[in-house]
Amino acid sequence: DAKTTQPPSMDCAEGRAANLPCNHSTISGNEYVYWYRQIHSQGPQYIIHGLKNNETNEMASLIITEDRKSSTLILPHATLRDTAVYYCIVCSSNTGKLIFGQGTTLQVKP
Amino acid sequence: GAVVSQHPSWVICKSGTSVKIECRSLDFQATTMFWYRQFPKQSLMLMATSNEGSKATYEQGVEKDKFLINHASLTLSTLTVTSAHPEDSSFYICSARSSGRVGNYGYTFGSGTRLTVV
User: Fold this and answer.
1) Is residue A81 classed as helix, strand or coil in its secondary structure?
2) Are residues B102 and A42, on separate chains, in Cβ contact within 8 Å?
């Protein structure tokens, strides 16, 4: 499974958009990009996933570059409850395993 | 949406005893379940993958005789930590995936079990 690189931490003002980058330059054609977040002492929460097209749901938008080597998770209007560790994961359709990296700690500030 | 129930949410046990953790998919059939372990201030580490009705596949470095995984039905998987020691104290989390092609859905995680061995 391809590895991902994320900044260790980011800050965002409440009400503003939070843009979380992820680099996955070794991604292969059958690998999906998944985003999860984890609030302290809880299980990870699914946010969104995609293969090559941009995706949007009620929580966030996922923008994947055309070469698929990087992506950005966008929380359009961050709230204090969005403070969490955000994980970008590349998942192979062959193995089906989610291998977590270190993630980005997003701190939303009032 | 899909819900995975994990019990207990926390447990304290004495060194040398065994502890069983249950993971149930409440509204879908989970053909594959995953077990993770997370130490403080660290990321989740995949321990093993279990498919319903077959033996679990363990990641490198995970002792299969110590961490017994059973996935006897499409809605239940259990992790038993045998002869627990203080170094096994950790946050254990399960994840379930329904049948079908990877990419058609997200993976649902349980709320985790905090194990403390004294």
Assistant:
1) helix
2) no
- SS3 call for B87: helix
Q: Which residues of B touch A102 (CB under 8 A)?
A: 43
Interval A73-96: pLDDT, tens = 999 999 999 999 999 999 887 788
Residue A9 pLDDT greater than 70, yes or no: yes
Amino acid at A35: W
Share of chain B above pLDDT 90, in %: 75
CA angle B5, B10, B15 (to 5 degrees): 130
How close is the nearest chain A Cα to the Cα of B89, in Å? 14
Q: What is the Cα A25 distance to its own chain's centre?
A: 15
List CB contacts (< 8 A) between B102 and chain A.
Answer: 32, 91-93, 96
Q: What percent of chain B has pLDDT over 70?
A: 92
Is the pLDDT at B46 greater than 90? The verdict is yes
Q: Is B49 on the interface with A (CB under 8 A)?
A: yes
CB atoms within 10 A of CB A30: 12
